[in-house]
Amino acid sequence: MRSLTRRFNQFTAKLLDLPQDVVMDLPRVTMIGNRQLYIENHRGVLHFSSEALKLALSKGKLEVYGQELVIRAIMTEEVFIEGVIQDIKYIP
């Protein structure tokens, strides 16, 4: 059933020319160099320090590692961080 729902959502996204991140509730990650990171569609901050950011997602979590990390803006489903970004991991 889950596979059928996923295929229907993908078909709908293509048919209506919608981004799949919107239809399938996936995170959208925009990175500028290794200095800025903008993440949309997260479900909350699990952990934050100057070396790590861990975000809950609807399906898994996202981990960002670096140095001198700072949250510049945080909203309900969006977060903008700056610093020296060294690693990003998506964990399903």
From TrEMBL:
| Record-linked Pfam families | YabP
Top-level taxon of origin: Bacteria
Protein name from the UniProt record? Sporulation protein YqfC
Look up and give the organism this protein is from.
Paenibacillus solanacearum
